[in-house]
Write a structure and sequence with these properties.
This protein is mainly α. Helices cover 61% and strands 10% of the residues.
């Protein structure tokens, strides 16, 4: 994998099938050091998990810095007023349902189940009629063919 001076040589390539070269750090690592990715030919990502985490952490730091230095100062008043409003909303419990509402909910659920059962019953009766009709035709055909 590496030359005598420790630098990576692309001509050498991976030593075996259980190893892959990271495109960021250019080191050969076992496949277990790479996250899975079904779209790539070998089924693993191009960057090793270590380089991927470093890239993610740097990006997260950049986003946090942008929020602290740019976004928050520009939107400070709006953010603070909305935080207060959201806290007030969070302190209020959900309204309780009245007994009438609960009873109405039970009835609508029961009617919905009843309607579904009736639709199923109609479908079953139609199938029975179809089967009886085909059975009747078969018996008529057997008598007429003799």
């Amino acid at each position: 994998m590496n030359n005598s001076n420790g630098a990576f040589s692309w001509e050498e390539g991976p030593i075996n099938d259980n190893e892959k070269v990271c495109r960021k750090c250019l080191t050969g690592r076992p496949l277990a050091a790479f996250s899975k990715q079904s779209r790539s030919p070998d089924g693993h990502q191009l960057e090793c998990k270590i380089c991927n985490k470093l890239r993610h952490d740097l990006r997260r730091e950049e986003i946090n810095r942008h929020y602290r230095e740019v976004y928050y100062p520009a939107n400070r008043e709006w953010l603070l007023t909305n935080q207060k409003a959201n806290r007030k909303r969070a302190d209020k419990p959900w309204p309780k349902r009245s007994p009438e509402q609960k009873e109405r909910r039970k009835l609508t659920d029961a009617y919905r189940r009843l309607a579904a059962a009736e639709r199923n019953l109609v479908k079953i009766k139609e199938k029975i009629r179809d089967l009886e009709g085909t059975q009747q035709r078969k018996t008529n055909e057997s008598y007429t063919s003799k």
